[in-house]
Structure formats: structure tokens, C-alpha cells
Amino acid sequence: MRFVFIIIAFICFSSATVAQTTVQQLLTEQQSHPIGIATTQPRFSWQLASAQRGVKQLSYEILVASSRANLEQDKADIWQSGEVRSDLSILIPYTGKPLASNVYYYWKVKVKTSKGETIESKPVFFTVGFVDPKNWKAKWIGYDKAFAWDSVTQWSRLSARYYRKEFGTAKKIKKAYVNLVGLGMYELLINGKKIGDQVLAPAPTDYRKTVLSNTFDVTEHIIQGKNAIGVALGNGRFFTMRQNFKPQKINTFGFPKLLLQLDMIFEDGTRQTVITDETWRFTADGPIRTNNEYDGEEYDATKELGNWAQAAYNDAKWLKANIVPAPTGVITPQPNRHMKIMQRIQPVAINKINGDKYILDMGQNFAGWLQLKVKGEKGRKVMLRFAESLQPDGELYTANLRDAKVTDVYTLKGEGEETWHPTFVYHGFRYVEITGWPGTPVTSAFEGHLVYDQMQSTGNIRTANETINNIVKNAWWGIASNYKGMPVDCPQRNERQPWLGDRTQGAYGESFLFNNGALYAKWLDDIQQAQTAEGAIPDVTPAYWNYYSDNVTWPGAYILIAEMLYHQFGDQQVLVKHYPSMKKWMDYMRGKYLKNNILTKDKYGDWCVPPEDLKMIKSQDSTRTTNGQLIATAYYYRLLQIMKNFAVITGNKSDTLAYVKLSADIKDAFNKKFFKADAGLYDNGTITANLLPLYFGIVPANKKMQVVETIARKLKADNMHISTGVIGTQWLMRGLTQNGLEQAAFTLASNHTYPSWGYMIQQGATTIWELWNGNTANPQMNSQNHVMLLGDLLTWLYEEVAGIKNHTQSVAFKTISMKPALHQQLPHAQATYQSPYGTIVSDWKNDKDIFTWKINIPANTTALVQVPVKAHANIMESGRPANEADGLRFVKQEKGYAIYEVQSGEYAFESK
Asked: What keywords does the record list, in alphabetical order (predicted)?
């Protein structure tokens, strides 16, 4: 969530039980090494939890103090908001004294409720990172050359660099902080111990624009006497995977480099600072011989450096660190949480292929790495090669990996059992080819580590249909696999790029499964920084590839994801921050490509429409192809509607008239050019051609039912199967359901023959494919762990099937709209969603003529609940007539639903 991005990602709420309501934690982050937040103006959020009905917050008071003791005594010497009469409990801005870096601040909130309670949270802390450039005293160090064993070519090989510094302290430490930027990736050690549980840090950026710093509290690791700091630097995206190769396409940034500052505060109030400078020593002749995201990591344990990060280590043969130029990017504290090992996975089988070659099956496609435990003679090389699937003969299928070698090599040191996993790379895989193993490998010698951005799983949904349940499961694994400090398209081949088009609507659906607001807020910053002076936005951001093709559909993710962050998480600040850049892009596209009110530029069309031949990547049948100008113009119209709302929200009301006028002109031109009124269809009649104007509100009101009927006929002609690509599928399930075709939507969701999501499962998929025919298509483009084809499926499941939706007049689920779309073949659905205000539950069963529905509305929210029934007098709630129940107010009967305004609490409806 955006408010996690600002403050809660780095602190936790503690619950304090007072009366029957509690102030409850949103996320738990009690780490000994908190990341310093990326702003001196944090925003505060909290949740109320209560079993009572109708609990509302009447007022709040936020207190911030310089010590826990002060806060416990209500001495808010930093900031005291005073009692504020408001029911808002998310994203409350700080307006106190200026906050300093490397200082612990403690805060709590007091809340008065409608039940006469006054409740209070426990004190929790946060720190601020190096927001002010003046904080930095350190110098950039590095070595801008390759060593003899390295290779700076298309097939780059660059060993890790190890930096160290010893220092002494004569006094007792009170507090100690490390701020550092380690490019491309780092591991930080003090006195031989790794600091923090982060991996693949820091998050990737366009290093020409921004480099991210991390902050750690290292107080417990500094001793009186001699100490040592060690930092290992990997390549990451900084020293890119393919050097001196297609420079017109692939951007490169330089050799790994380090900026580090250790600030120590002693008990007597004095201070000491250790910085990176020319007194540091380094070597690249260590155990990590190469680390390349595409090709893998090679680790030679015979070259381990011993206690290199401890004091009294002999580094006489090490080189003197060089002072090197700083990257051009601005140093900014990392705004989103680190990647971590989020789950450990046990293999399900291991099979011998021939000789000493074995295939390990993890049972699940995922992204991360394999940890091994091995015992053997010194110098033996164990090779691990990764893939998503197997060939018919049981060998790895690697054709779809293109030129990525995806191979790890571990050279044994021969000293008993050795445990290892790579440090600076990750793989997308289910299967691992093992060669060189001493003896016969067994599954217990291996463990898979799922790696993605540390974030809460916020949603869970199950239905009576196992195909749909398995699709959701596969979606979860695919989404998690592709969160890598930015959303990437795939984790396995030589691509792994943050394509905008993949997440245009996908981010919205993902937000029901994951607390992804911080990740996407950071990504919007990446997009903003990639914008050219003229206003163009690339298709890939950060711009590791130079793809400025001036589409509407791909860069449109900038606006649509901003809308998601506001709608789902209530983040208005993100709109204020990005509105000028979004407007600039809209103006750029209009000025360059809008001809007679039709957007004339489109590159990708309805990408990845199911082809007519299972071996094709792209359909050659023109009847399946949607006009690119139709797509671009419809999308631009949709974006104008959003920008009109943004203009009002951000105080740019003067822009609204221009948006309204242009919208009307485009709508008129669109219908004149593409609508065939006599036939009731748009252009060549594809589902996408008709769905976009229908969902976006372009269809003339008196022709709407004709277009709906056209879509219904086309679905029947397609044998009730998916015929849309990435663009159409982003609106498909909601578009059908909201226009009376909910049974058709359910059929598409539950199909298990080609083309469908269920077909993937029938073919053994454990994630979502890139292509509807990903098991048979040309290997040039058939990633088996993509999420772009999910479209709006997850959104549909939560909002339409489970009936959990943010009300159109609300943000962040302050008011919830609950209306399940019932399906003849679906008797049950159960979902939970951890909204910014608390957990929402919808659990319904439709058994013959009786509908039962258990719901939970979080404290401090209300809901508009629509219960399916012929007459509201037939509705019971918790065993009594609904009209007599506490917390309910009947509003009206409409189209087979009884509508109630419902206060917070748990309810059990039954209708006939």
C-alpha cells in the first residue's frame, strides 16, 4: 500500500486491547535493521478491529516523541496533532518538527470511537534515511576495470568485488547506523555477520536517474575495540548481463561501486564516522567468479577469503580502493521494501537421466534459487542448470530461454558438508539438471527459495470450481515470481524486463492478492524518470532497453496504475506527484499522433490473441486481429476520463474542460469511423473491438444492447472460449458480467480446453503462461511464467464473484460495495481481503432456492450490501428478520437484489 511505502513498511503497529475495540497492526516489521524511510514528511495509518457492530472512529490524536519513555508519558516533544475529529485512519500527514536522519522516533495514536471507547496503540519506532544529500560524507569507491579472468562482452563474466575496512572504537556505543549504496547489488557484513535479511539489494532503478540507499541499525554489531566492515558487490542491473552488445537497445551503466557511511553515537554523546574512501582495500579474486542474472553464478569455495569481514584479517595482498565517479542518478532512500526469501520449497522428486546427470523436480515453477548441501572432494564442480519444463525424453527444455545460460556452478572446498546458494542472481524454474554430484543426490540435499519483494499476502479466494481455484493458485505463484523490486515480465529467459503493458490492469488484480502499493508507487517514479523532455514514455521502465515506440496501451499503464493506487489504497499524493508528467505524455501523444480525433499510432495491437494454429506465436488470421487505431483511440478516450478525475482531485480543475471537450470529439470521431450501426458492431467485429467501446462508455446508449448481443454471438462462434489478447482480456470478465453476460464470463473462467486458463492447468502448468498455447508454440516466445494474460480475471473474481469492491464514491474501501454475481454452475465462493481499513470477508452459498451469505465489514467502514432475493421481506440476518437486525438499514429493492446500508461487524444473511 502507498502508506506502507511511506511509513508502515518500516515500522509496525502494536495492538492494545482497550474495551472491545483495538488499534491493530497493519504489518509486522520488527527487524533489528529497519530501513530508513524515504521522506521527512511521513504519513500515518492504523486499523481498528472490533467484534461489535457499528464501530466508527470519531477522532484521533497522533503523538510523536524522541524517546519511548517520553511517548509512554504522552510527552510528544516532536509532534502532537491534537484531537482531530475525523473518521480517517489512513495516510494522515505529519506536520511536526523537521525530522533528522539516523534518529529513532516513536509514535502512537489515540482513538475515540462511537462506542464511547478511548483506545491507544503501543509506541513503535521509525527512522529516516539519508534524504538530504548533505548527510553524505563518504566517497564513491570502486574499480572501473575488468580483471584477467573477467569478460566484458556479449557474454559478460565479472567476478564479485569484496571491500573491507577496519576501525577501532574506544567508547561504549549508544547507536550506530550504516547508510550505503551498493551497486549493482551488495551484501553487508560487520565483524563477520551479515546485516539484515534482504537479498538482491538494493531495488533496481535506471541508475542514470536514481540510485537507492539503504539504512541499517547496526548498534548490536559494533564492539568496543577493533571492528571491521565488509561489503561484497555483485553486478545486478548496473553491470548489465550483456555488455558491448546492441548498444542501440541495451543500456549499460558501469562497473560495480560502493558508497558507505557508518555513523556511531557514543554514550557520552560524542560521534565517530567511518566512510568509504581510498583507505579501503578490495579484491575481486574471491569465491564468486561470475554473477550474471541471465547466465547464473559460479562459486569456487576453494577461493573463499576466510574471515575477510573481521578485524585483524591480513589484506596485504588486496588492492587499494579507487575513488571513482559517482553515478549520475540522485541518491534516494529506497522507498519500497527489500526482496527476501519469502518461502522455502522442498523438491518432490529426483530422477537419473544418464551417467551423472539427474533431474530435480521442485513440483512448482517459481523464481529464486536452489540451495544445496553437498559433501565431496576438493575441486569437484557441481553444475546446476535450470528450466521450467522437460522434453519428452526427460531432458531439460531450454529452447524458450533463448541465449540465457541459467547455470550455477559450485566448486567444493572438500571440508565436510558444504551449504551454498547463489547471492547475486535468481532463476525462474521448476526443474534442475544436476551434474558432477559426488555420489547419488537425494531430494533432502536441496531446498528451493522463493524470492520476491517482502509484502503481505492480502487476499484469499476459493470457489466451488477447482479449475478456478487452481488458476488463482497459479496466478499467485506467477505474480510473486515476477516481483523483483519492479514488476518484470518473466523470470527465466534473457529478458526479465519491466514491460508496462503487462501490468496495465494486472496491477489492479494483483492488489487483491498482495499488498503491492509500495512496489507500484516506486515503479511510477521509475516511469516518470524515464519520460523524455518531449513527453514520450517507453514501453519498458526502468529503461534498460530503449523502447520508445509511442504506444498508447503500454505507456497508459502510468495513468491506470496511478488510478489503482488511489482507488485501492487511497493514495492521493501519488496523483499530485505524477499529474504533470501524465498530462505531459497525454499532450505529447495528442500533438504527435491524433489525426482527425483518431489516435493513429499503435505497435502491439491486441497482443497475444490465441492463434489458429497451436504452434504459432501470433495469429495470421485477420478476422482475429483488432484494428490498432481502434485500440489506441479507445484507450486514449479512457485515459481522458481518468485524467479528468485526476484534474479535480489534484486541484487542476482548469484542465477538466479541455478533457471533456476532447473526449466528446474523440467519441464522435470513433463512432463515425468504426461503428457499423446497422450490424451493431465495431470494425471487423472482434470481441476486443466491441468490448473496449462498450466498457469505456463510447457506445451510443441506444445501441448498447446491440453491441452486447454482438459480443454474445461472437462468443458462441468462438465456442465460448477466449479470443482476446492482452488488451481485450484486461476488460473482458468485468465487461461481460456488468452487461448481463455473467454466465459467459464463468464459462470462460472455468474452461479447460484451448484456449483458456484452465487449458494451461490441464497441461501441467503451475504458473500462468505467456501464450495461450505456451506448451506448443515456437520457443522464441513461450515463457511459462508470465502474468499478462490474466487480464482482469482476479479483479473479476474479487469484485464480481466474491462481491468485494471499493464503492465508486469511495477510496481504500472506506465504503465497500458488496454484490456477488451468481452463476448457475457456481454454488459457493469464499474470499477474504485485507483492505487498508481491515479484513473484509464474503462467504456465500447458493443452494437451490436458499442463498446464505456471511460477511465481515471492518470497523470504521460501512458497506452497501446487495442480497439476491425476490422480496426483502424474505431475508433473515443471524436468525431474525433483516428489518429487525442491528447495523442494517434497508435502502431499496432493485433488479432482484435487496440493498442495505450496513455498519461494521459480522453478519449472516439468508434469503429465499
From this structure: Hydrolase, Signal
What is the spatial distance between Cα 535 and Cα 322, in angstroms, rounded to a whole number?
38
CA atoms within 13 A on the CB side of 348: 7
Domain boundary residue among 420, 453, 486? 453
Domain limits for position 441? 341-453
Residue 382 shares a structural domain with residue 424: yes
pLDDT at 18 over 90: no
Output the domain CATH number for residue 513.
1.50.10.10
Percent of the chain with pLDDT over 70: 97
Same domain membership, residue 818 and residue 796: no
**Is residue 469 classed as helix, strand or coil in its secondary structure?**
helix
- Gap between the Cα atoms of 438 and 357, Å rounded: 11
Tell whether 254 and 197 lie within a shared domain. yes
DSSP annotation string for 105-140 = EEEEEEEEETTS-EEEPPPEEE-B---SGGG-----
Whether residues 201 and 216 fall in one domain: yes
Q: Do residues 830 and 462 touch, judged by C-beta distance below 8 A?
A: yes
Q: How far apart are CA 580 and CA 590, in angstroms?
A: 15
Residue 60 shares a structural domain with residue 28: yes
State yes or no: cis peptide before 542, omega within 30 of 0: yes
- Tally of CB atoms within 10 A around 439: 10
Residues 173 and 319 in one domain: yes
What is the model's pLDDT at position 20?
65
- Measured CA to CA, the distance from residue 192 to residue 771 in angstroms comes to 47
User: What confidence tier does 523 reach under pLDDT thresholds 50, 70, 90?
Assistant: very high
Q: In angstroms, rounded to a whole number, what is the distance separating the alpha carbons of residues 714 and 244?
A: 49
Kind of pairing, strands 296-300 and 407-411? parallel
DSSP annotation string for 240-255: -SSTTS-TTTB----S
Measured CA to CA, the distance from residue 686 to residue 669 in angstroms comes to 20
Residue 189, pLDDT above cutoff 70: yes
Into how many domains does the chain fold? 5
Strands (E) located in 759-821? 805-806, 815-818
| CA distance to 281, 460, 828, per residue, from 799 (Å) | 57, 13, 15
10 Å Cβ neighbour count for 880?
A: 10
Residue 417 one-letter amino acid = E
How many degrees, rounded to 5, is the angle at CA 226 between CA 225 and CA 230? 145
Q: What is the DSSP string of 620-648?
A: --GGGPPPHHHHHHHHHHHHHHHHHHHHH
Give the model's confidence band at 24: pLDDT under 50 very low, under 70 low, under 90 confident, else very high.
low
Peptide bond into 755 cis (omega under 30): yes
How far apart are the C-alpha atoms of 791 and 781, rounded to whole Å?
Answer: 19
- Indicate the residue among 126, 146, 178 that finishes a domain: 126
Q: Tell me what the mean pLDDT of segment 52-75 comes to.
A: 97
Q: Which residue has the cell 491486441?
A: 606
Residue range 280-304: average pLDDT? 98
Element holding 3 (H helix, E strand): helix 2-6
Residue with cell 571492528: 227
Residue 3 has pLDDT above 50, yes or no: no
The C-alpha cell at 209 is 536517474
Contact assessment for residue 162 and residue 300, using Cβ atoms and an 8 Å cutoff: no
Asked if 467 contacts 570 with a C-beta cutoff of 8 angstroms, the reply is no
Note the pLDDT of residue 19: 47
Q: What is the pLDDT of residues 870-903, one digit of tens each?
A: 888 889 999 999 999 999 999 999 999 999 999 9
φ, ψ dihedrals at 219, nearest 5°: -50, -45
Concatenating the DSSP letter of every residue in 212-278 gives EEEEEE-GGG--SEEEEEEEEEE-TTTS-SSTTS-TTTB----S-EEEEEEEEEETTS-EEEEE-ST
pLDDT confidence of residue 6: 34
Mean per-residue pLDDT for 842-855?
Answer: 94
CATH number of the domain at 72, please: 2.60.40.10
What angle do helix axes 517-530 and 573-593 make, rounded to 10 degrees?
A: 40
pLDDT of residue 539: 97
What is the SS3 assignment for 608-622?
A: CCCCCCCCCCCCCCH
